[in-house]
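yo

u said u wanted the structure for the complex thing, so here. seqs first:
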Amino acid sequence: MCPSDAGERRRVALEGRRRRAATCCALLWLAAAAGCGGLSAPQFRLNMEDIIRETPDKDPDEFRITGREREQVRQGLLEEMRREKDPQKIEQLEANFGAALDAGTEEVLKLKRDKIKKLKILNTALVALFGTPDEPYVFPESGLDIKKIRLAAGPAQTVNSNVRRGLYRQHCVHCHGISGDGAGPTAVFLNPYPRDYRQGKFKFKSTEFAAKPTDADLLHTLTEGIPGTAMPSFKLLPLDEREALVEYVKYLSMRGEVELAMARYLFVDEEDLELSRSTLVEFLAESAESWSSAAEHVVRPQTQPAHVAATDPAEKARLLAESIERGRKLFAGEKAACVKCHGPTGLGDSEDKLYDDWNKDKDPEKFGAEAATWVLPRQQLRPRNLRLGIYRGGRRPLDLFRRIYTGIYGGPMPGAGPSPGREATLSEEEIWSVVDYIRSLPYEGQVAVPPPRQLTQRSRQSGSLP
Amino acid sequence: MLRHCTLICLATVLLLSAGGTARGQKWGDLKGRFVLDGTAPPPVELDVNKDQEVCGKEKMFSEELVVGDGNGLANVFIYVVLERNQKIAIHPDYEAVAKEERVLDNVNCHFVPHAQTVWLRQTLLLKNSDPVAHNSKIDPLGDTPTNPLIPAGGQVPWQFKKSQGLPQTVTCSIHGWMKAWVLPLDHPYAAVSGPDGSFEIKNVPVGEHTFQLWHERSGYLMGAAQQKDGKLVLSVKPKTAATKVTKKSSQVKLKIAEGVNDVGQEIKVSLSYFEGR
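structre next:
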């Protein structure tokens, strides 16, 4: 059989599957539309508004003004009258009240319809670029592997005896949510909240401050979990399944970033979005590029601490003690200034008004009554208690080095290393000293204890064993 | 051969005419002064909970709404807005400005200046004149974010890469009350009103430009232009609680003439812009 025959057969088979899927979808949609059971395929949640999901087939021009919106306009006009002091003008305003109210509501309605139109365009663009949770799709420009994504997407099921599909919905969705917005059903009970991938910001990684994590970083987080948080280890999953999940996290993150960029363009810049392939790719390209170039931004220290290189045990101990002492001074001083948040004793108790990027704008005072409707209320961030020996980004000296060198993206922790255009605040040697000091903190007070052998001898002499 | 000649001739003519406009370009200065129409609410005192010996020297107040002498409204951004891919002629004097550094200093635990604009060709120098450490967290929309630690007496240069539609915040994580606003733009035609409410943009190409007015507490201010006695006058339309101020509807077209365009020494901004949140 010639290869083209095989190709042709595969195409036909695929076509058949696609058609069956389409019929299935259509049936489901019909069922949902007829209101007989609310069984519909899950959709990615738009960051902005639920209104277009609730009324997907309604023409934006069919939307009417609500009683509440009209009341708001009326209150505004009344306020304007109260403010006016000139009796003549007040009379004028009173006479024109009805007309002004109509004009005001007309204006509000126009804005509302425009907004809904734009939300629909945003939704169409995102479905075109990324498909749906059950039928994911990626442009080749995204650099993503659709095979891996398909393994992770869709409902959880086992097919062909051993191939498990729908991995994201089996393992991740209850915390991270169907859109990767970190607002799954269990999220509200957790502190910290699960990561919202859509901003493309990840805290614990090997790369420079604002760079994306590498695949290896995400795989590491998935494999080891994040100590001190609800993120567990998925070491028991086979490697190919973990890799599929890493790809899916990247997919959700990229989708979120494109959504944000498009929403800004439509609603902040108030521009019109043309639904052409080239425009869509333009929005996709920036995020895709940042992901594919992540590996170029890995932070690799050029030196290692002097005590690591030393071979003589006494010399090693002396150098380490020296380094710890230097680190202690830096920690408390105005150069590294760790003390400002992590506290003089390293308990992380010196700053009580910190929020990460996902929480900083959620100021209940600013939002008033709306704040009560938030699924995830504002959550405060605590500087790490360094006496516990639990480090979210990993406990290896290299992990701690990178935290200090780059800072924590998405959080308030600043970076002390160099970045393009600027010199380092702390030299590598100084950073290693801070690392040594931090690593000594959970055991402080035990360092001065004599080595075990002497202790035992003395204990024997006094007749009691420790 | 003849066709080649024609092409070359055409190109030469085009080049000459292009050079001609650049040389013949006329420029005008734009100046004015914003005042608050009403009595400003008393400023909110900030909770200085750290580094008291440096930051607590004197009482510190929120700079969200700063009103100076003669009710002058400070920190109003006024800047030219360009369409996508639109170019604007740059006056030769700005060549020297491009080489100047913009400075964002930390003085007694607040940012100085509180609000400023940066031309993308300029570098923003994040400086720390305090004897305590600071950091400057900048997360501009769609641009590279940064959060450098700046030791006592230290400084860090920063280069913005993207023009923004709105001013962006700079915050210090160590001292939570600190906040500044920076607007990176791909042209130098922008100003922030000073403590007395006055502003000046020098050498704007003569002709009509779209301007945006913005204040951190109110957001967009609705600008309006009219000609009075042959003079260009800028005003800010009053608003009510129900008025929805959008970007496009708040923009104003100003026709800059040669020489000094004083668009008003009392451009009134109604108090309702700053009430409620």
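Confidence is low (pLDDT under 50) at residues 1-38, 448-452, 454-466 of chain A. The first helix of chain A runs from residue 3 to 33.
cya
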